[in-house]
Amino acid sequence: MSEGLFDEGLFGADTEMRAGEKLAENAPLAVRMRPRSLDEVVGQQHLLGAGAPLRRLVEGAAPASVLLYGPPGTGKTTLANLVSLATGRRFAALSALSSGVKEVRAVIEEARRRLGRSGEATVLFIDEVHRFSKTQQDALLGAVEDRTVLLVAATTENPHFSVVAPLLSRSLVLQLRSLEEDDIRTLLRRAVGEERGLGGALRLEEDAEAHLVALAGGDARRALTALEAAAESATSTGADAIDLATVEATVNRAAVLYDRGGDQHYDVASAFIKSIRGSDVDAALHYLARMVEAGEDPRFIARRLVVHASEDIGMADPTALQAAVAAAHAVQFIGMPEGRIALAQATIHLATAPKSNAVIMAIDEALGDVRAGKAGPVPPHLRDGHYAGAEKLGNAKGYQYPHNKPEGVLAQQYPPRELVGRDYYQPTGRGAERTLSDRVPKLRSIIRGED
Ligand SMILES: Nc1ncnc2c1ncn2[C@@H]1O[C@H](COP(=O)(O)OP(=O)(O)OP(=O)(O)O)[C@@H](O)[C@H]1O
C-alpha cells in the first residue's frame, strides 16, 4: 500500500502531522493555527472540562471510538489530531468525499500491519462520515470492533440518522457546539500575533475584527480564512493594518471559495430545481454538476429530487417519484462518486417528464380547508365498526361495499357534510394525467349520485 494515500486526504501534507513537526510555511493560516494541545482549543468546554469524555480520551483513558458531531470549523479534525498526538498513535485520515471501500480497507490493512510489526497504533480519522454509504460504513466495523484502529469520525449531520446502527453503538457520540464570538476573537488575535500565524506584521483594527467575528458565524476556519485573505490584500498594498474596508473587499472571495453552507449552496440548489421545473435538462445537469463538484451532500440533492418529483411532475408521470426515490436509495447504497450517475439519471427523468403541479395544489387546498376549521364529523357509515360497542353507536351502519358493484364504484357520501362537492384534485391533462382528466369527473359524478 502506498504511503501516498495518507497524503491525499483533506489536509495534504499535514495528514500525518506529529507534535512539534513543522508545518509548511505556505499551509493555509487555519491549518498553521491548528491547536497543538488541548490548552489551545477554545470553546467545547462541555467536552473538555476536567473529567469530561473528550479530555479523558485525550489523556489516554480507555480508548473508545468517537463520533464527533457538530458544525463546520468547530474543531472536529483538530480534536482527532490531538487524540492521536496525546495517545502517541499514528494519525491516518480519509475524507468520505473522495474515498471508497477500497481506500478504507487499505488504510485498515496498513494499520493492522503496523500494529503487528511494531505495536504502533493508529487513529483513523474519517471526515464527513455521513457521506459514506452503508457498505462503506460497514467496512469499518471489524477494525473498530477488534481495535485495529481507534476511529474518530466527524459529521456535520445528526449521526443518529446518517451513521449505521452498529457503528453508532460502538462509538461515543460527542456533540461539538458553534464557537462563541469571544472564542473566535481569541483565535483571530492569536493568528495575528503568533509567529506561526501572521507573526505580528499587521495590526487588525477593531471594526475589522468585529466584522470578521460576525462573518465567521461560529466557524473558526471561516474566520481564519477570511483573515488570511484580508491580510494578503493589506500586505499587497503596503498597509500596516487590516481595516474594515479591506475585510469587506476580500470576504466575497473568501466566502465563495470556502463557504459550503452559504448562499451559493442555496442559489445553485434553487436554480437546479427551477431548471427541472422548466424542463431545461441541460441547465439542470449543469447545476447538478456544480453541486457534485462542490462536494454537496448527495443525499441533499436526492431529497430535492424526491420532493420535486411530486411537486412538479406528480401524476403527469408517476414513475418520476419512483425514479427519484430509487436514486436516493442508490446514492445511499453506492455512495459517491458513482452516485452521481443515479442522480443524473433521476435529474434527466424529472427534467424531461411532463409537468403537473396538481398534486401539491390539491393537498394544499385540502390543508387550507382543514386549517380553516372545515373538518366536520366523519359520516357514521364510514366510522370504525370493528370494536365492541361500535354497532350500538351506529358506526359503519349503512356502509356500502364498492366492490359489490360491477364498476367497483357507487354513490355514497365520503367527506364530512360541509365538504360534499368540494373538488381538490384538478388533473392538468398533461402526460399520464390526461386519462385522469376524463376519469376523475366520471368518478365524482357516480359517487355524488349525479349519474
Ligand atoms: N475549538 C477550536 N479551538 C481552536 N481552533 C479551532 C477550533 N476549532 C477550529 N479551529 C481552527 O479552525 C481550523 C479548522 O478546524 P477543524 O478542521 O478542526 O474543524 P472541523 O470541525 O473539522 O471542520 P469541518 O467539519 O469543516 O471539517 C483549525 O485548523 C483551527 O485552526
Automatic annotation (TrEMBL):
InterPro entries: AAA+_ATPase (IPR003593), AAA_assoc_2 (IPR032423), AAA_ATPase_RarA/MGS1/WRNIP1 (IPR051314), ATPase_AAA_core (IPR003959), DNA_pol3_clamp-load_cplx_C (IPR008921), MgsA_C (IPR021886), P-loop_NTPase (IPR027417). It comes from the Bacteria. GO terms for molecular function: ATP binding; ATP hydrolysis activity; DNA binding; enzyme activator activity; single-stranded DNA helicase activity. Gene3D superfamilies: 1.10.8.60, 1.20.272.10, DNA polymerase III clamp loader subunits, C-terminal domain, P-loop containing nucleotide triphosphate hydrolases. Residues 62-179 form the AAA+ ATPase domain. SMART domains: AAA. GO terms for biological process: DNA synthesis involved in DNA repair; DNA-templated DNA replication. Keywords: ATP-binding, Nucleotide-binding. Transmembrane segments: none annotated. Belongs to the AAA ATPase family. RarA/MGS1/WRNIP1 subfamily. This is Replication-associated recombination protein A. It comes from Saccharopolyspora elongata. The lineage of its organism: Bacteria, Bacillati, Actinomycetota, Actinomycetes, Pseudonocardiales.
